[in-house]
Amino acid sequence: MISYFNKFIFFSLTLFIFSFISKEALSDGHANFEWTPEKPYYVIEDPNAEGSEKQAINKASYYGYRIFHQNCHVCHGKAARGSSFAPNLLDSYKYAQKGEKMGNKVKYDTPYEWFLDTVVNGYKREMAGGTVNVMPGHGDVTDVMTNIDGIFGYIAAMADGKLTTTNRPGKGWKIK
Ligand code: HEC
Question: Quick check: 161 pLDDT over 90?
Answer without folding.
Answer: yes
